[in-house]
Design brief:
The chain is built from eight helices and nine strands. With 266 residues, it is of the alpha/beta class. Helix 1 crosses helix 7, helix 5 crosses helix 6 and helix 7 crosses helix 8. It starts with 6 loop residues before the first strand and ends in a 21-residue tail after the last helix. It binds 3-hydroxy-5-(hydroxymethyl)-2-methylisonicotinaldehyde (PXL). The site of 3-hydroxy-5-(hydroxymethyl)-2-methylisonicotinaldehyde has 15 residues, from strand 1, strand 2 and helix 7.
Amino acid sequence: MPEAPPTVLTIAGFDPSSGAGITADIKTIAMNGCYGIAAITAMTVQSTLGVRRTVPTDPKLLRDTLDELLRVGKVSAVHIGMLGNADVVSEVAGFLESSHLPNVILDPVFRSSSGAELLDQNGREFLRRSLLPLTDVLTPNVDEAARLTGLEVGNTEQMKLAAQHLHEMGSRAVVVTGGHLNRAVDLLSIRGEDVRIFRADHVDSANTHGTGCAFSTALACQLALGQPLPVAVLLAKAYVLMAIKNSYAVGHGPGPINHTYGISNR
Ligand code: PXL
């Protein structure tokens, strides 16, 4: 019998088009060599044309799911994506406080690329105050870093400053992603260490739905597999880059990245 890979838990919303959210995360986890388990924080009504409606999960149902999943066995990393509202945020914070799980990645999902709010205002406040300090790595894109800190974040110096503010707010490590800047720049800042900057060519593609979820979930997997954080960032970046480069159009509008590139059954 083969040895079981590490288990990675994703706590995120359901995107029925599977470009983002938990169904996409499960694809990312499988492709990054781990076993995925999931708890749904919110339903969304959406297609490749955009998000129409969101309904947060009953917080008690979410908590029961999380507690039940812990009975299965060891969880080696946790990825947190869309949360919906403040009740869900505080339930997840309570779960993290009592479970002491390792490698907790928080992707502060505020808004869909089509402009829909995916976390209400109270939820954003709760995330900042009670959830962020309980996590190991925060992965905001430049817009999310700006919303979290109130600073303008559009270049490398501003990314560095935002990361420092996020450390002061309780983040041990921050990856600010700037994939859509002219030159794709990601900045890794670990409290007390020198900042590392990762530069890559910007990839021009219409199919970028789900890049944030894929990056943060792949990062969780690489940490679960034992990679040090800087190496895990590079491997997660490489995974997302390949998934964008190998993407194809699905329906109309911005398509998803190709999470399962390299697997062909046609
Ligand atoms: O890409 C952010 C995101 C995360 N999670 C879910 C989403 C979206 C964007 O649409 O639907 C469930």
